[in-house]
């Protein structure tokens, strides 16, 4: 194999990751990019065995070993950074030494990250630069795709939530109620159910207008939200009708306490433009444990019957359904 005749400064432009050894294996020249990877104190005048270690297979980095591998692919590691394995070739020089030209191979991204390398640190003909641009472009595209997917997913979730939300009050709507009841039935989980109808609400709309009525409905929604758990569901199913679902609730006494708190708060005046809006609430209640299966139609009918029993008893009260309650009369 013909000896290399170019001087090291010229080789720096062609091979910015090379080093030159004399015939004793002492480092006499280090190209600028490789110098960035080596200790700051410098390695000129030091044996190559103190700087590089052969890999695959591992062997001492002596001149005899390097000469035996002239023309063959080398795998070497920097002793100051042994995790970074470089590829290279050794070529003889006219003075009996060697030129070892190195490259990063698959470690190029890691090397760029660790040592802050730029385009200027690579040969003009090195395709590594183009590869880095492609990797960077691919990373940017993938990041944008991930961001787009997240935005699309967020938009989908928001649309689904909007489809299940009452726009005036922010409570769940009838569709959300149906889905929640079906979910509880599928889980075989008991629950309590309340049907709430506002008393004297029509008078608010008739005397103060629909803006006042809307304000009252939003205040009612706030009360229902505050008086229920995050796992409960409060839904607006009609103009002034609401249904509340309490997963895991099997005690009539506990459900009655919750209903009493809600009614007490509904009876407090709600101010709208310096006008006191006074309403009340009538509630009918059922427990799913009282039914042999998830018969939602029967539960709704019984809750309605209990609700109208509350209204006939004077409004502003709650009634638990029981057999023998008089039916709704219109």
Automatic annotation (TrEMBL):
Q: Which positions are tagged coiled coil?
A: none
Which residue range or ranges hold the GGDEF domain? 189-323
Q: Which domain of life is it from?
A: Bacteria
Q: SUPFAM superfamilies of this UniProt entry?
A: Nucleotide cyclase
Q: Which InterPro entries match?
A: DGC-Regulatory_Protein, GGDEF_dom, HNOB_dom_associated_sf, Nucleotide_cyclase, Rev_trsase/Diguanyl_cyclase
Task: List the source organism.
Answer: Tabrizicola oligotrophica
Please give the name of this protein: GGDEF domain-containing protein
PROSITE patterns for the chain: GGDEF
Q: Which Pfam family is one of this chain's hits?
A: GGDEF
């Amino acid at each position: 194999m013909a000896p290399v005749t170019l001087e090291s400064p010229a080789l720096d432009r062609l091979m910015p990751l090379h080093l030159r050894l004399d015939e004793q294996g002492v480092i006499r020249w280090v190209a600028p990019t490789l110098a960035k990877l080596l200790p700051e104190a410098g390695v000129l005048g030091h044996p190559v065995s103190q700087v590089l270690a052969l890999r695959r297979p591992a062997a001492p980095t002596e001149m005899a070993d390097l000469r035996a591998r002239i023309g063959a692919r080398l795998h070497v590691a920097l002793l100051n950074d042994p995790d970074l394995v470089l590829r290279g070739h050794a070529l003889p020089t006219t003075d009996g030494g060697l030129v070892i030209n190195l490259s990063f191979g698959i470690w190029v991204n890691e090397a760029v990250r660790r040592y802050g390398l730029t385009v200027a640190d690579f040969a003009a003909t090195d395709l590594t630069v183009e590869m880095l641009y492609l990797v960077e472009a691919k990373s940017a595209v993938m990041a944008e795709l991930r961001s787009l997917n997240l935005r699309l997913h967020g938009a989908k979730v928001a649309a689904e939530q909007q489809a299940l939300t009452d726009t005036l009050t922010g409570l769940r709507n009838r569709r959300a109620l149906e889905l929640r009841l079906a979910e509880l039935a599928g889980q075989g989980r008991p629950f309590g159910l309340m049907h709430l109808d506002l008393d004297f609400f029509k008078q608010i709309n008739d005397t103060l207008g629909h803006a006042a009525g809307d304000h009252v409905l939003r205040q009612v929604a706030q009360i229902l939200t505050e008086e229920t758990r995050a796992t409960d569901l409060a839904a607006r199913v009609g103009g002034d009708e609401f249904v509340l679902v309490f997963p895991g609730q099997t005690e009539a006494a506990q459900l009655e306490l919750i209903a009493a708190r809600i009614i007490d708060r509904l009876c407090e005046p709600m101010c709208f433009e310096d006008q006191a809006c006074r309403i009340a609430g009538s509630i009918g209640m059922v427990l799913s444990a009282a039914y042999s299966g998830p018969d939602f139609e029967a539960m709704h009918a019984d809750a309605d019957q209990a609700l109208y029993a509350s209204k006939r008893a004077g409004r502003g009260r709650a009634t638990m359904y029981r057999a023998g309650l008089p039916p709704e009369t219109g």
